[in-house]
Every structure is written in C-alpha cells, then in structure tokens.
Design brief:
4 helices, about 260 residues, 14 strands, globular, outer membrane lipoprotein receptor (LolB), chain A, alpha+beta
Length: about 260
C-alpha cells in the first residue's frame, strides 16, 4: 500500500470510528428518560435508604486546607462507624503527625502533638464548633468527610421546594439553603447555605463519584466556610467500606504531661 493510500485509509478508518462513537453516545443520551417528578419525602427516603448501606468506613486522602491561620497540605486517614463515631489522623509532609480527632456521639477529643495540647468538649460548645469544618449536627459531620450528607424528614408545613434542573433534583430549604441531588444512587453532590445578602457562608461538594461496595462515594470532597474562613479539599486515594473495625479502632493515646483544655 502506497503512502497516499495508507493516509487515506487511516483517515476514513478514524472518521468511521468517530461516527460510530458519536452515534453510540447520541443513542445512549437519547435513551435517557426524563427524571420523574417526586415528592420531597419520597426522595429523602431513597437518600436515607442508599446511605444506610454504609455502616463502616476507612479512607486515605491527601488534603489541602486554607484557614485564617494560613495554608496546609498533608495526608489524612479517616475511620468511622456510622452515623456518629469517627477517628481522624492528620499527617504533614514526611509523615509527621500533626493531630488526631476522635468523635463519639457529641463528645469530641482533639490532640495536637506539636503543641503538646489536647482539646476536649461537646459539640454544643461554640469554641469547638469554630474549630470544625462542618457546622451541622454530629452525624452530618462524620458522614460529610466521607462524602455523604443526608436530609432529615421534612415537616409538612415547612418551606421546602423540589425541582429538576439539568437532570438533577434540587431542594430549596427555605430562602437560605439549596441541595443538589444526583438521581444515580441517589446522592447529594452539593449543599450550600447563603446569608441575607445572598453570599455563600457554607458549601459542601462531592465530585468524581464511584461505587464503593454498596454505596456511591466521591473521590473529591470540598468544604468551604466563610466565618471562620476554612477551605478544605480532600482527594481520596483509597476507600474501604463495611469492614469490621478492630478493637480500639478509635483510641487516641495522650501522654500524661499533655495539657487538656476543656471547651
């Protein structure tokens, strides 16, 4: 085959593959049915049923954090028994231990080996809330770092609307909060809260979802808050779900000379 014929053959082969690929994609997209209208209570029930399949979680992630005190990069390991028990270990560059957090229901213990200091308190403490990236109830905080948020049952007379936008369900909770839901799962992919002048004061996003065991989970989690300023991004490299936790899985050993501050 001459060079000219070879180039012509390659061109037509590439064109044919492209046409077949585009036709296949078009057929696939065209075959998607429009989302059906749902009552808010029904969608919330489906969300809760999906996430109820996630009993235990262990994840390893790289993360970046920007706060009022500056920026930080490091590694994080998260273990949890859902919905309200969690253990976190944070490492800086070169594997240096930076801190550990344990949550058991509403009780929180944070240990900072750098400062030889530990903080202990209840989630109702205002001082403690300012240190944590998610300001919702404890179960939301535990699940949110795993890439999961849930909606609680809605009262009949509450100011809630549910619409369909770009093949996503969108909840509007009153005038300040909006929640985006991917029907595949279903899973919450974004949740934002705005103030009275329409500025975002808190935002959670999950991206790059994959099936992990029985549950769809994001490989990327972003959490932002304006007061105090916090911008956290987690990129998960490994996730294990629904495995039995070893005894002492959430233990934090604090040296006797560490000063524990009660909040």
């Amino acid at each position: 085959m001459s060079g000219r014929h070879f180039l012509r053959y390659t061109f037509f082969l590439t064109l044919l593959i492209s046409i077949l690929f585009l036709a296949g994609c078009a057929g696939f997209l065209a075959s998607k049915r429009p989302l059906r209208q749902m009552e808010p209570a029904e969608l919330i029930q489906q969300l809760q049923a999906h996430y109820a399949k996630l009993n235990t979680y262990q994840g390893f992630a790289t993360f970046t954090a920007a706060t009022e005190l500056g920026g930080f990069r490091g590694f994080m390991e998260i273990r949890s028994i859902n919905p309200d028990s969690m253990w976190i270990k944070v490492e800086g560059p070169f594997g240096i231990d930076v801190g550990m957090i344990r949550m058991a229901e509403r009780d929180v213990l944070m240990y900072n080996p750098f400062d030889n200091t530990a903080f202990h308190g209840n989630l109702d403490s205002l001082e403690l809330k300012r240190l944590l990236p998610i300001e919702l109830e404890n179960s939301q905080m535990v699940l949110g770092l795993q890439g999961v948020l849930i909606l609680n049952p809605i009262e009949q007379d509450s100011n809630v609307t549910l619409s369909i936008v770009d093949r996503n369900y969108v909840f509007r909770l009153g005038e300040s909060e909006t929640v985006w839901i991917d029907p595949d799962g279903p899973v919450i992919t974004r949740w934002e809260r705005r103030n009275e002048i329409d500025e975002i004061v808190w935002e959670w996003q999950g991206k790059s979802y994959q099936k992990k065991g029985k549950v769809r989970l994001p490989q990327l989690v972003k959490i932002k808050r304006s007061d105090p300023k916090q911008d956290i991004t987690l990129r998960y490299s490994q996730v294990r779900t629904n495995r039995k936790m070893k005894r002492g899985w959430s233990e934090i050993k604090i040296p006797e000379d560490v000063h524990v501050i009660e909040l």
